[in-house]
Amino acid sequence: MNTRRKLLLALAATLAAPPLATAQEKLRRIAWFSAGRAGAPSPFLEALVSGLRELGWEEGRNIAITPHWTAGTPEDEQRLAREMLASNPELIVTGGRNTAAVHRARSAAPVVFSFSGDPVDAGFVQSFARPGGNMTGIGLMSLELAGKRIELLKEFVPRIRRMGVLTRVEHPGEHRERAVSEEAARKLGLELVYAPVRSEAGFDEVFGAIAQARCDSLLVFPDGVMVAQAARIARFAVERRLAAVSGWAVFADNGLLLSYGPNLRDAFKGLARYVDRILRGAKPADLPVELPRTVEFIVNLKTANALGIKIPQSILLRADRVIE
C-alpha cells in the first residue's frame, strides 16, 4: 500500500470516528448547605454524590459541589446562608433546619431539600403535589411511621402505660405528628405526657417533668435539635429505665431502645434525582415533594439488656439492624 493510500485511509477513519472531547465538559455548580464541619465525614453528602454518579454526574468532570458547613446558632446559620448565596451557585442542596435558613435568605436559585418537618407548614412549598416556587425535595415526616413507632414499642414492652413525649412545638408539622401519636396511643391504652422543649438549654427541665410524671417510656419526635441531643436523651432514658423510641437510626445508635423511620442515607441519595432533573431543565415548581421510599427498623440490644428487657428472637429477626 503506497503512502498516499495510507494517508487517505487514515483521514477517512478519523472522520468516521466519534469526535474526542477537546475541552472539559461544562461544570454545573452546586452548593451543599448542611450542618457539619469541614474535613469531617458526611454520610449524607456521600450518599448524594453516589446518587449523582449513578445518573452520570461526576465531580470534576461535569459537576462541582461546594460544601458550606453550618454550626452554632440560627443567627450563624442565617449569616452563612447569605454567604453561600453570594457565591452564586446554580443549585442548592440542603437539609434539616438549614432549609429554613436558605428559605429566609430568599434564594433565587433552585433549592432541593430533605426536611424533617412538614414543608407545607414551613412555607417552603404550596403543596406536596405542586410545590409552586423554587424549592422541592423529600419530606421526612411520614405520619404513618409516627403511629407505627408507638405500636412497635408497645409490642416490645407490653408493660408500658405512660409515655413521655419529647417534642418541639415550633417544628413545622408537629401538631400533625402529635395528633397521629395520640390516636395510636389511645388505641393501645397508653397515656401520653407531653414535654415540649423550648430550647436546647431546656432539656433538664423537661427531663424533670417526665420523671415527675412517673413515665415508663419515651417517644422522641425526630428533628435536628433532638439529634444534637440524642446521646443526652439516651442517657436520661437508661438512667430512668424508660423504653424509648424515635424515628431515625441515629437515636438507636446513640442508645435509645428502638428507632423506626426513613432511611436517611437513601433519602439524601434520592435527592440526586431532583438535582438531575433540574440540571436537565425541569423546574422545582413542577417536581412533587416525595415521602421517604425506604424505612429502617433498628434495635439496640445493648440498651435492652441494660433495661432488663427480653426481646424475642422472632422480633429481632424483623430488624434491619441490631446493635449489640
Overall residue-averaged pLDDT value = 91
What global shape is seen? elongated
> Based on the structure, what is the oligomeric state of the protein chains?
single chain
Which CATH class of the largest domain applies here?
Answer: Alpha Beta
Overall number of structural domains: 2
Enumerate the spans where pLDDT stays under 50 for 5 or more consecutive residues. Answer: 1-23
Strand portion: 15-25%
The helix-strand sequence is: HEHEHEHEEHEHEHEHHEHEHEHHE
Describe this structure in words.
It is a single chain. With 324 residues, the chain is of the alpha/beta class. The protein has two domains: 28-140 and 264-286, Response regulator (Rossmann fold, 3-Layer(aba) Sandwich); 143-262 and 295-323, Rossmann fold (3-Layer(aba) Sandwich). It is built from 13 helices and twelve strands. The strands form two sheets. Strands 7-6-8-9-10-11-12 form a seven-stranded mixed beta sheet, sandwiched between helices. The chain has a five-stranded parallel beta sheet with strand order 2-1-3-4-5, sandwiched between helices. β9, α10 (249-253) and β10 (258-262) form a beta-alpha-beta unit. α2 (43-54) crosses α11 (264-279) and α3 crosses α4. It is elongated, with a radius of gyration of 24 Å. The relative contact order is 0.12.
